[in-house]
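USER: Fancy drafting a protein?

ASSISTANT:
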Amino acid sequence: MAHGAAQPAATKPGILSRLEEALVAFLLAAMTLITFMQVVARYVFNYSFVWALELTTFLFAGLIFIGISYGVRVGAHIGIDVLTKKLRPTTARVVLLFFRMLQVLYGLVTGKEAHLLGDEVEDALKLAQAEAGEIGHPHPHHGSHGDQR
């Protein structure tokens, strides 16, 4: 790319991305301001806003949903990796795989999971029904395997 050439459009945040970021910032600022006002009113003036807790709760709910969308868009996620960062990469993979297998085993033992792997018959039936127009869409991880009628 020549010096001074414009960046690709994919790297520039669109108006919806900026709106999403602005909403997250606004909701967080509004929650902070309302909580601060409530504390000052209660402890300085011995007065309480009856609506402050409810409004802060609703703002927080909105912040969660918009924050989830933002996190998915930018690829951010919460991870607890204190242990795995201390290990060598190969050992860390074995430890993450070991814990995942323990999770699957726990689901099987407690009856929350009836099978170790996916149910191919059920997936095939859903795919066939989707192709016939009986239900919405097939499982998102499985593509169409052609018309099997």
User: Anything to note?
Assistant: The two ends are 50 Å apart (CA to CA). Helices lie at 15-44, 52-74, 82-86, 89-110, 120-131.
